[in-house]
User: Fold this.
Amino acid sequence: MEDSCSMPAGAVACIVERQDSILTAGESRARIHCADDSLAGSVSQRACVFCGARVVLNPVTDAVHLVHGPIGCATYTMDIRGSLSSGSELYRNSFSTDMQEKDVIFGGEKKLALCIDEVAEKYHPPAVFVYATCVSGMIGDDIIAVCKQASIRHGIEVIPVESSGFISGNKVVGYRAAAEALLRLIRPKEGETIEKTKKINFLGEYNLGGEKWLVERYLREMGIEINVAFTGDSTVAALKRAPSAYLNLVQCTGSMHWVATSLERSFGTPYMDVNFFGPENTAESLRKIAAFYADETISQRAELLIEREMARIRPELEKYRSKLRGKRAAIYVGGAYKAIAIIRQLRGLGMEIVLSGTQTGKQDEYESMGRMLSEGTIIIDDANPAELEKFLLEKKVDVMVGGVKERVLAYKLGIGFVDHNHDRKDGLAGFDGAIRFAREVYVTTCSPVWQQIRDPAFREVHS
Amino acid sequence: MLECVPESPVSHTTGKINPAKTCQPIGAMYAALGIHGCLPHSHGSQGCCAYHRMHLTRHFRDPVLASSSSFTEGASVFGGAANLKTSIKNVFTIYDPEVMAIHTTCLSETIGDDIPNIIKQAEIPEGKVVIHANTPSYAGSHITGFSNMCKAMVSYLAQTDGVDKKEQANILPGFVNPGDMREIRRIVSLLGIKLIMFPDTSGVLDSPLTSRYQMYPEGGATVAEIRDSGNSVVTLALGSFASHSAADILQEKCGVTGIPLKLPIGLKATDDFIMALKDWFGCEIPGDLTLERGQVIDTLIDTHFHYQGKTVAIFGDPDHVIAMTEFVLTMGMIPKYLLTGTPGKEFEATINTMLDEAGIQDRQVKAEGDLFDLHQWIREEKVDLMIGTTYGKYIARAEDIPLVRFGFPILDRAVHPLMPVVGYRGCLRLIEQISNALLERRDRDALDEDFELVL
Assistant:
């Protein structure tokens, strides 16, 4: 492995097998290697199928989310998503069958059935999602059968989520498991017809920091109502009305494209990609939606709203732009759609993007990302911390946008950090979100504390 | 989240609602980080490793590195041996640690991978060390996993060179913060005793910001130290759930006398810890420690009227809850609800004995419980104060009870991993936190006419 530290594209991969997962924009025409399984023995930042399924479904507020497995899977996912609810808070509780050795040996179906009975009687939820985990999948518990029987017993929806962690190291597979569970939930009963309305569904919107509510305000001003979001601040009853929508908006492409195409097939609802991260994206998305309705009043209202909001945030953004101009930024987030939106936003703040990567990006997404980036920018799939560290230092990054595991790494390297993942507490979508995002980038990039490190006296002590 | 607990009491017998424990591998991972130059390795699906790293990072606010065997469906069907062998090769080639500490997961345990055998067949570079612990997630808790990794350190590494023991003490610190481990080291050093502490995450998970990232920070017990622990004259095992088994193995394997103690949290447990060292080594208690103890007593008297007679619920890891129960009794408070998520009858027995001696009848004590249980008790009869992990904040809010954050994990506050709760200085910190929580509440609730400048 002596040659593990050189690669033709100019960037350096620390693991020889990972060379194809790192590209330098402008220098190589090679296609990035992605959506691959992580190497055994690597310190990957990736999660598992269960994790993917859980983040998609957990925001369904009035459902019980019951994890069928040993305790850890439930503990680590207790109320982590930061999705807000305007009603029930039931989803924030953590339910686990807490499988023990004897359940692993003799099978966990009986315990699962008892647990469903207990939560059904205690909380009378309209639905229970039952998540399979590694062990319940491995020992072959038939959760589909248990759910079916429990559903009949209690007269509520009990929906299996086939999310055994080992199926894949890629969260996207878990998104799919969640999508299948959602489709199972919203499938109309035989003979039942659902009338179409003029409302829209908002797919891939999880209401982090109240982002769904923010977009809802814009749309309402234009005269458009949200039917239901998948799944931020949603209820079981609202999700069941999903087929009545006029249009499906798709925001998080990684988790929801498949749902959108399925909904189109089953209910004839067309879908449209939107993106509310950054003022330009927000404006474009609102225009696209308005155009779809082909209603002059809606378009006029959209233009008025965009003009007013742009005028309102412009001076504020300018204030931050003057501080951030020329600073160097790195992006490492879950999905490519988010990375692309962040690239635009940081550019809008006058910053230079020197590294961009994702955990779950797809080939075509990387290609469009590559076209956006200037020469010399590093593009990376499923980065490990060693690679991130290397490029962050090499590229003299001032600020990084990423998720929880990158935060502390960036800080240790003396680099500012913005959380654009589940840990964000303030909505970063829409026009208001653009200001919050700019403020967060500014606060961390320009913290006076960095001065304490850059101070020459300090360097002497530590060099 | 008021709706978590229905208005009238209901029975809760199956599964867990809002757990007060998590699974074994994370404890093993934390313990392994307390070995110098060690890369913990999770033999299972990637998700486990990602969750454990995330959870530890949220508590310590420091980077946590660990590798994973990255199981896929194939590995799950055909066994994880190939994945583990590749992992061992990749880990040493790429990350080059001194030690690779493998722990299993529920998945690899269910498959039945024979780890020692796989290690034997793997290519391990000269001078490098691979150890392993079995940590099935479907038994015990994160504390069991921590204990199992401590046991692995002893069984893989500790050696005895001969009959003559060295005048040095082994300390098994338990699942405590790096700040606590640092404080334990300070106290033992003040007594003039040479010590080997393992695991030791100080200098690993409380490292300074230097603009340079060290994959393997300065801290941690070295392999040489852990090896030499077999030559020590005595082992102080702090916390029965986290540390006692490793001390037992060390006694069995190398003939090192093990002294089982509580975690040195609170006045009495700290006294016991120091006296055990004094008795064994015949050292003098230095003036510094006498002064610190005196300050604790002085402060207890200065503040006793703030908390004496108040009722308290304590929940979290068993060794922490046991030690904290003893300390609040010292303070004159009334421990009313004591709960841990970790299974083990010893928890209930130890606490019930303490409460019986203190004459406290009106109480609930439960091992292997969850926060639903705790909330239901509190619903029936409120307490004045809660002491425990971040997960208690929902109950604290729903029932309007002040919460002192204590133990693992604390996900919504910072600095705590650096501030010791062990030793006499730890006592001062706990007294401050407990009285401040109650006084803040008093100020908040006071009518204008009762609002006082001096309390």
Notes: Residues 423-445 of chain B form the longest helix (23 residues). Chain B has a mean pLDDT of 96. DSSP finds 17 helices and 14 strands in chain B.
